[in-house]
């Protein structure tokens, strides 16, 4: 059964959960960053797609 909750309270708890997820993700990344990467994971740095997109933009401008 759903309880009637204040939307502001729901939003606060959602933000709290999102923050916990974010912290866990950061922790998991830093903890696994020094271990063996699974196949394909070694290229999952956030910077790589940006560089690829930048190079694509440069290629497209040259056409």
Summarize the SSE layout with pairings.
Elements: H1 7-32, H2 47-62
Task: Give the end-to-end Cα distance, rounded to a whole number of Å.
Answer: 60 Å
- Percent strand equals under 5%
Shape: elongated
| Topology order in helix (H) and strand (E) letters | HH
Q: How many helices?
A: 2
- Structural class computed from helices and strand pairing: mainly alpha
Largest sheet: none
How many domains, in number, for the residues? 1
Low-confidence stretches: none
Question: Average pLDDT value?
Answer: 75
Rounded radius of gyration (Å): 20 Å
Your description of this structure?
This protein is an all-alpha fold and 63 residues long. It has one domain (7-60). Helices cover 67% and strands 0% of the residues. The radius of gyration is 20 Å and the shape is elongated. The model has no long low-confidence stretch (mean pLDDT 75). Residues 1-63 are annotated as: Disordered. Residues 9-22, 44-63 have a biased composition (Basic and acidic residues).
What keyword list fits this structure?
mainly alpha, 63 residues, single chain
Short structural description:
The protein is mostly helical and 63 residues long. The protein has helices at 7-32, 47-62. The model has no long low-confidence stretch (mean pLDDT 75).
């Amino acid at each position: 059964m759903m309880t009637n909750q204040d939307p502001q309270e729901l939003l606060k708890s959602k933000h709290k959960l999102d923050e916990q997820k974010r912290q866990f993700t950061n922790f998991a990344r830093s903890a696994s960053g020094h271990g063996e990467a699974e196949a394909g994971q070694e290229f999952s740095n956030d910077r790589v797609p940006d560089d690829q997109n930048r190079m694509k933009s440069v290629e497209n401008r040259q056409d």
